[in-house]
Amino acid sequence: MRLIILVFLFMNSLTYGQDTLVNFAFTDFIELVKNNHPIAYQAQLISEMGDAKLMKAKGGFDPKVGGSANQKYFEGKQYYSHLHAGLKVPTWFGLTAQAGYNNNSGERLNPELYTPANAGLWYAGLTINLGNGLFIDARRAELKQAEIYQNSSRLEQRLILNQLILDASIAYWDWYKAYNKFVVYSAATKNATIRLDAVRESAALGDKAAVDTLKALLQVQERELYLEQSKLDLDNKKALLAIYLWEDGFIPLELDSTISPQLFDHSFTSTPPLSAIINLDTLAANHPEIVLSQNKIELSKIDYRLKKEALKPVAQLKYNALSSPVSDNVLGSYSIDNYNWGAYISYPIFTRKERGDLKLTTLKLAEQNVLMQNKTAEISYKIEATYNTWLSTHKQVDISAKTLKNYTALYNAELTLFNIGESSLFLVNTRDQAMIDAQLKLISKIYQNHVSKALFNYQTVNY
Fold first, then answer.
1. pLDDT the model gives residue 18
2. What percent of the chain lies above the pLDDT cut of 70?
3. Residues contacting 343, CB < 8 A, separation 6+
4. How far, CA to CA in Å, does 403 sit from each of 2, 438, 440, 451?
5. Strand partners, 24
């Protein structure tokens, strides 16, 4: 079910008649889009996914507690009973701390597994990687990459919102342009109709030729055709605007018939700040797309370190101090003679897989650096181009406004001459058409100014 946007969403306190139009300001529209559009909710989900990925990576360093029990009975004999409980604590520096308790017994127990009778054996120690994994391993690499991914998800959220704001802004100014064209043709049709009535009266009195009535009628019909075309365009642009209007991201809204875009005023246009072009390099360097490219490079650098680490041999050393309780819940004294230790080492002879992975990562890094340089140049150009366009359209609006003022004065003068019989209907229509064209051109230039501002804000991700 589609709802109607209520006027109080856009106006703080306003009373109006049944036919009074209420201006829907651009800033109010954009605020509504940012807070309620489904894509805005989607962007928020992307950010939350980055947080979840970081949480997952941090989980690789969570302490783990566990235990096991294994027993065997056969023909009335207990072959063995293995009871174990332990705790492992991974650390950032390639060390794993472990502690635990073993209690093994049974008639057929493997001798190396014996523990003190009815007491068990406590242990505590460390496992360290001395080769591959000493400086970085998959767990630490995943955490570093997750931190970068979290930052990238924030940037992707900004880019999605940035695109949404641009699309919505263009939709609004399209509506603004179509609405004001409709207003121009409505006024032109009304003026042509008034002239037709005046010409008919003059023709009836013999002051005007009968053919002037036909000329005035054709002018009205032509205006009505343009009016109908502008109305169709306005209806379509209004329908397009409605797809950006939502409540809480789930309920679509519609524009009420009393809602119009903000007032037509050529002084409402703007120029870009001078600081923008001065800080062009900074704007480009801080652009989310550039930072995303830098993040991809950082991810590849971490991957490069991990691949380079794989060229080292896998070497692990484990040491546990052992102690047996002398009574319930009381540990015996530690002796340097009570311990177990172990070592493990392996290394691929040819390392072709490892060297191939490292080479591929090196090439990927080089490719990403080239792409980032190219993207930086493209973004710098787009920022500068939209800046220049924004600046130029503001000047064009001023020129168009002055031109319209002169055409309006010319039309009014010609209309006065026509009313006193010193001009022809042809000249009045010509002046009228020139004035309408000037009005449409001014509307178009104002539209271009607002769109160029939206494009500049899009290129600089300023919303």
1. 37
2. 92
3. 315, 316, 317, 318
4. 44, 7, 12, 22
5. 261
Query: What are the beta bridge partners of residue 320?
Result: 125, 340
Closest CA to 237 of 216, 261, 221: 261
| Tokens of residue 99, six digits | 């502690």
Q: Where do the domains of the chain lie, and which CATH numbers do they carry?
A: 3-57+140-298+367-459 (1.20.1600.10), 66-135+314-349 (no CATH)
pLDDT tens for each residue of 114-156: 888 778 899 999 999 988 988 898 999 999 999 999 999 999 9
Alpha carbon separation from 70 to 12, 64, 67, 80, 226 (Å, rounded): 74, 20, 10, 8, 90
CB atoms within 10 A of CB 389: 18
Look at residue 67 and give its three-state secondary structure. Answer: strand
- Taking a C-beta distance cutoff of 8 angstroms, is the pair 188, 222 a contact? no
| pLDDT at residue 332 greater than cutoff 80 | no
Return the residue matching tokens 């060390």. Answer: 95
φ, ψ (nearest 5 deg) of residue 376 = -60, -45
List, for residues 286-307, the tens digit of each pLDDT value.
899 999 999 999 999 999 999 9
CB 32 within 8 A of CB 245: yes
Fill in the amino acid letter for 17: G
Give me the residue label for tokens 């503001």: 394
Please provide residue 109's backbone torsions phi and psi, each rounded to the nearest 5 degrees.
-70, 135
- Dist. CA 242–CA 191, nearest whole Å: 32
- Quickly tell me which residue has 């690789």 as its tokens: 60
